[in-house]
User: Fold this.
Amino acid sequence: MVGVGVIASALGIAAGLLIDWFPVSASKEAKSIDTLWDVLIIFSVPVFVGVTTVVLFSVLKFRMRPGEENLDGPPIHGNTRLEVIWTAIPAIILVGLCTYAFVVLEDVEAAAPNPVKVRVVGEQFAWTFFYTGADGKEIKTASHQLHVPIDRQVQFTLQSKDVLHDFWVPAFRIKKDAVPGIDVTYSVTPNRLGAYPIVCAELCGLGHAVMRSSAVVQSQADYEKFLSGLGKPAAPAGGAGGGAAPAEDGKTVFNSSAGNCKACHTLADAGATGTIGPDLGTVLKGKDEAFIKDSIVDPNKVIAPGYQADIMPPDFGQTLTPAQVDALVKYLSDVTKGG
Ligand code: HEC
Ligand SMILES: [Cu+2]
Assistant:
């Protein structure tokens, strides 16, 4: 029994430590969290394997055999020494691991000077990120893709508009629930440039699987450029004095992370194959621009037959600029006209 337990434990620990289970790490905190995981594997695999082998061994060795149906087992009055040992050892392991985990948690959550503040709002089925400007005030325009500077602590405040969601950036190694009515906070210090997936880790409804976005870790300069771009009001179409606004391309918006229409809709022209919502190439045939615009900014006004309300995010009117909405409308109207 001991032999089987030792071999199985060794295999389990090897599988836990040698296989690279995690995605690339992109935060300062990831290192101590990954080490914590390794230590927990080393302690918990033998406990699991030990208990399982004793149970299996006992089932084999002490099971009831034919003819023994009416026999009683030998009377047992307990064994104080054994009980003290098997209570004390797990207690010591538990207290030790809890202390270690607590120290790691304190370390990971320690506030750093000069943090970046981001408010994260989850809703069925999108993430929206609000940033703080240089004046300390929240910038009105939000984004659906997260931007953070490298090597500065980011303090997130998580909120939810409807049901429980869970904000998770696996590369940062930290995930927390967004709970309606409560501000949940956590901080992380990104330390690797790049874009990393954001997923919702709490089953939140039909569109849960498409509640995805990405976290872009960029240099301080690029981050500031992004923020100043956000703060600017969308230039009025053909407006005087503002200089020419860059023309928005409808197809680009459709496939961008800001719109992310492709996650839910099929549209041949855009190469989109989403199936949560209707195939726009089919349902928009013969519809005018006013209908298309309403469908985007007020999706619950008319529900496409066979589909449900409250799945398409209701706030594209706010999260996209007017120029982006107009470009989308024109694009969708153009590509669905033919035939
Ligand atoms: C989370 C999934 C989701 C996303 C993201 C999404 N939609 Fe939808 N959309 C739906 C669903 C579901 C419907 C059908 C229910 C309804 O009409 O509101 C729909 C309906 C529509 C309709 C109306 C179709 C009709 O015939 O009534 C249009 C137009 C549309 N979406 C365009 C867009 C555009 C443009 C975007 C990107 C800016 C987008 N959608 C993003 C899920 C989504
Ligand atoms: Cu969710």
Observations:
- The pocket of heme C (ligand 1) is lined by residues 125, 207, 210, 259-261, 263-265, 276-278, 280, 283-284, 292, 295-296, 299-300, 302-304, 307, 309, 311-313, 316, 328 (CB under 6 Å).
- The first helix runs from residue 2 to 18.
- Confidence is low (pLDDT under 50) at residues 234-245.
- The first strand starts at residue 116 and ends at 123.
